Amino acid sequence: MGMLDALVGRLERWEALDTVGQPLAKAVGRVVAPTPVRNLLSGTMMGHPLHPMLTDIPIGAWTMSAVLDLVGGEQAERAADLLVAAGVAAAVPTAAAGLNDWSDTQGAESRVGVVHAAANSTALVLYAASLVARCRGHRSTGKVLALAGLGALLSGGYLGGYLSFARGVNVNHTAFHYGPDDWTDALAEADLAPGQHRLAQAGDISVLLVRDGDRIQALDSVCTHAGGPLEEGEIADGCVTCPWHGSTFRLEDGSIARGPASIPQPAYEARIRDGRIQVRARP
């Protein structure tokens, strides 16, 4: 295990961070509870999370401002200042989207997320102070503050990458769930009465089957957002709501009625043949 891995492992086990993280997560959860806010910050209408895309703006702006500060000379000063200002402005919605995503995490991921947020918040404060110093004519101070901010930004970026790629936070949990190409038995028709729903296995995937009269609707049972068990969720008004974080999917086609999910739920074709419920992937 490398030094960075060991350091992150200690953060994951540092339970004292929960004293900050848990109350903050509850507060953020209350703020993002309205469906329009939740959908906007989650990237529900985009088809993938909003936060990773927004991070490119402050990271790019602040990194290029450092290049101009170091080698651009006097003629690049205004451009460097503009990049610092652009990064500060973009960091605010980026942080909002990040807090929205982080509020759904628990345990080790939440603890690393607290430090990730603290590092990025430190970077924002340092760059804001750098901008003030530049506007007051204290360019050398502004450059030093910006370089310190870049260090905090890189630390936060490393932890953000760890959360996404090592811990799988906010990735599509059905990315490799394709469903059977041919009609495949999932359940006996007698085991699913009208108005009921059941968890069933169809080949390599588990499916949520919902019966409305003679009509069968089938969705992947694993929530795309965080892997929650949809079969344990509430079914109402033609939708199923994940019991973990409240993502709501339409049974008709798996589309999203409410975030935090940003990726639709895989939906499968279903039919009844010879007393058996069969499903297959949609074309």
Q: Would you mind describing this structure in some detail?
A:
With 283 residues, this protein is of the alpha+beta class. It folds into two domains: 3-166; 184-281, Rieske Iron-sulfur Protein (3-layer Sandwich), CATH 2.102.10. Helix content is 48%, strand content 18%. It has seven helices and ten strands. The strands form two sheets. The protein has a six-stranded antiparallel β-sheet with strand order 1-10-9-4-3-2, with no helix packed on it. It has a four-stranded antiparallel β-sheet with strand order 5-6-7-8. The longest helix has 29 residues, at 107-135. The two termini are 45 Å apart. The relative contact order is 0.11.
At a glance:
The protein is of the alpha+beta class. It has seven helices and ten strands.
